[in-house]
Write a structure and sequence with these properties.
This is Lipoprotein. Keywords: Signal. The protein is mainly β. It has a domain of 176 residues. 10% of the residues lie in helices and 43% in strands. The chain contains six helices and 29 strands. The protein has a five-stranded mixed sheet, with no helix packed on it. A four-stranded antiparallel sheet has the order 4-2-1-29. A four-stranded antiparallel sheet has the order 5-6-7-8, with no helix packed on it. A hairpin with a 2-residue loop joins β25 and β26. It is globular. It starts with a helix and ends with a strand.
């Protein structure tokens, strides 16, 4: 009986082998199909590190970048020594970096110095290997050697850089009348390293606002609308005393404003004003406005009531029925959005500080929150460790991969980690270790 069982097993195995060989030789037989959508597809995660110049956290000693796979980025046993082994991104001060949507390309425009305004593009090949590709071009003749620029969300095709210059004006008797703001906007073909368009405009506020001494003093963060026919540019307002033309620091903060231009012509400037949020919309070093569900959502800063996320609808006007105040949502006072990034599901990670932040070696302590744009809710992400020297004012980049958002956490001069936030579930994964050096810090992922 035992022998018979063995024979049956042998015959069954032989039959299986023959059947497999027959099926493999038959071109018409069904073949195994790999569902690529169900596979975990890796992408590069590039970590940006800002070296100290003269003071801890100033980031003026140069920017280094280092890339790893998304699998390694989620692995806490992996260690990244960007300051020792990273690629130096050309820039006199902190580089202004952007990445392609799939993480395979890094775009850089040098900030200040002899190379300020130079655009370069690099293929990401892992570790410290970033291979320059395409032609280098300077946008300095259009927007100066310290340009404020951003990559538009148009499939990695276009970058836009801006500047503003101001001049006080007076009547025939020498009395102050207004401050004129001249803006310049250049669009850059990122693929072919070509200038697409350049326009300059004088941009005015209302007669009443200008008579009081208000003017646009800084602009940044151009963003395309859903139709792709308007460009929104964030603005900061300043004020002078009309009697003396001296800067006025104690004044009423006006409603948040955005400059709107036709696109791609960059013509017909206008200014729209929010009645919900007050303060600036130009952001700082990170993208400040994003397209979601047909509308543009924009953070504001220096709002007396705490930062808001504002909404600009498809009619290219602020939606003043959308009231999302971070103070109220987080239960803090003086919330200030330093950087933020939504995933495609309308859930976002926000880097912020508030009046209760500790004062660290480089400035106020930063935190991260998970935000829902539809529900207008926000909750501090507790699973990320915080320290009084955790400084996020210069934070630049988040990686969005599906519903996951990658970020860096490390106090100035101390080691930290990559963290990955699943925006759908709120689950936080502690990832690769970030090895720091004295006085330096990490400014994001790309």
């Amino acid at each position: 009986m035992k022998k018979q069982i063995l024979n049956l097993k042998t015959l069954a195995l032989l039959f299986s082998v023959l059947l497999l060989a027959f099926s493999c030789s038959d071109d018409d037989a069904p073949k195994e199909v790999v569902d690529e959508e169900t596979e975990d597809v890796s992408r590069w995660i590039t970590v940006a590190a800002a070296r100290m110049g003269e003071n801890p956290g100033d980031g003026n000693g140069g920017t280094l970048i280092y890339s790893i796979s998304s699998e390694d980025a989620k692995d806490p046993t992996v260690s990244i020594e960007a300051f020792e082994n990273g690629f130096i991104a050309p820039s006199n001060r902190t580089a202004r970096l952007q990445s392609s949507e799939d993480g395979s390309t890094i775009f850089n425009i040098s900030y200040a110095g002899d190379t300020g305004g130079n655009y370069t593009k690099y293929l990401v090949e892992g570790g410290q290997t970033f291979t320059q590709t395409g032609t280098e071009i300077s946008i300095a003749p259009y927007v100066g050697t310290a340009p404020r620029w951003i990559k538009l969300f148009d499939g990695d095709q276009t970058g836009a850089a801006v500047y503003v210059s101001t001049e006080h004006e007076a009547d025939a008797d020498g009395n102050y009348t207004r401050t004129n703001a001249t803006i310049g906007v250049v669009t850059l073909d990122l693929e072919n390293s070509l200038i697409n368009n350049f326009q300059e405009h004088d941009v005015a506020l209302t007669d009443e606002e200008e008579a009081l001494g208000y003017y646009i003093s800084r602009i940044d963060m151009p963003t395309l609308n859903a139709a792709g026919d308007k460009l929104y540019i964030g603005a900061r307002l300043s004020k002078v005393d009309p009697a003396t033309t001296e800067g006025d620091s104690d004044y009423e903060i006006l409603g948040s404003k955005t400059i709107v231009l036709d696109y791609p012509s960059l013509l017909n400037p206008s200014v729209i004003t929010s009645t919900v949020g007050h303060g600036n919309t130009n952001g700082y070093r990170s993208i400040n406005a994003f397209l979601y569900d047909g509308s543009v959502y924009q953070a504001n800063q220096s709002d007396p009531e705490g930062s808001h996320i504002l909404k600009i609808n498809s009619d290219n006007e602020y939606d003043n029925s959308y009231d999302f105040n971070l103070d109220d949502a987080l239960g803090v006072e003086g919330a200030y959005i330093l950087a933020w990034r939504p995933a495609s599901n309308g859930k976002a990670v926000v880097a912020y500080r508030h009046n209760g932040s500790a004062e660290g070696v480089a400035g106020a302590q930063g935190f991260f929150a998970l935000v829902d744009l539809d529900a207008k809710t926000a909750q501090k992400i507790e699973d990320i460790p915080y320290h009084e020297d955790f400084y996020l004012f210069q934070y630049q980049g988040f990686v969005v991969d599906g519903t996951e958002i990658y970020l860096t956490q490390a106090p100035v001069g101390q080691n930290g980690n990559i963290y990955v936030v699943d925006t759908e579930t709120g689950v936080v994964t502690k990832g690769a270790e970030l090895v720091n050096v004295e006085g330096s810090h990490f400014i994001g992922t790309f």
